[in-house]
Amino acid sequence: MAFSNPPRALLFDVFGTCVNWRKTVVESLIEWKHMALNDASASLASALRLRASNLEDEDWGRFAQEWRNSYMTYVRGIASGDIPPSGYKTIDEHHYDSLLTLIHDWDLVGLWRLTDVKAISLVWHRLEPWKDAAFGIQELNKLYWTCTLSNGNVELLGDLASHGKLEWTHIFSSNMWNSYKPSPKVYLGAAEKLGLQPDECAMVAAHLSDLKAAKSNGLKTIYVERPQEETMDTDEAKKEGYVDLWVREDEEGFVTMAEKLGVAVDRTRRRSLSASGTNENIWKKGMTDAARSL
Question: Which residue, among 164, 159, 181, 117, has the nearest Cα to 23 in the 3D structure?
Answer without folding.
Answer: 164
